[in-house]
Write a structure and sequence with these properties.
Length: 168
């Protein structure tokens, strides 16, 4: 049984041999794979004038990053989500790569986040929502500096960040 309560999923039937070429044009690299290097991330962002958050939500940049984990990764990297992706320097991209890996590792360890309707296959809730550093924490104190977390809209999505730790 396929159940997609948030309606993000789609089904596509392809002929043998068509899947890899189809995905290659629509998905970026796997952020937990060995090929996810600072150099590759830099190349993916180099010509993107869009804000870094929007660039990371674009599945052609990296596969599988959603709104929650992009906000969490940017907080870990101390990068403002509104920063144009192409303006990031090598040190920022290195920090972003590590932030992405750490945010995803935390989510995996905690079996995802149950905010409304997400459940694990066995029906249990994930617990990542108890560990969020910025996502959904509007006006709560930053775990790092105590400044209230700010919220804005970017790429049509709610975006949370610390205005002190992630200066614009």
């Amino acid at each position: 049984m396929y159940r997609d309560v948030r309606r993000f999923g789609t089904w596509l039937l392809v002929e043998p041999g068509e899947l890899d070429p189809y995905l290659a044009t629509r998905l970026g690299g796997e952020p937990l794979g060995r090929a996810f290097t600072t150099k590759r991330l830099a190349a993916s962002l180099a010509n993107r004038k869009a804000p870094v958050k929007a660039a990371l939500l674009d599945q052609r940049t990296l596969a599988g990053l959603g709104n929650i984990y992009v906000d969490e990764a940017l907080w870990r990297a101390r990068i403002n989500p509104l920063t144009p992706a192409r303006d990031l320097d090598l040190d920022e991209i290195r920090a972003l790569r590590e932030g992405i890996k750490k945010a995803l590792a935390a989510g995996i360890k905690r079996q995802g986040a149950t905010l409304r309707d997400y459940r694990q296959p066995d029906g249990r809730s994930g617990s990542m929502q108890k560990e969020f550093k910025v996502y959904g924490r509007d006006s709560e104190p930053c775990d790092r500096c105590g400044t209230p977390i700010a919220k804005t809209r970017l790429a049509g999505r709610g975006t949370w960040y610390c205005p002190v730790c992630q200066p614009g």
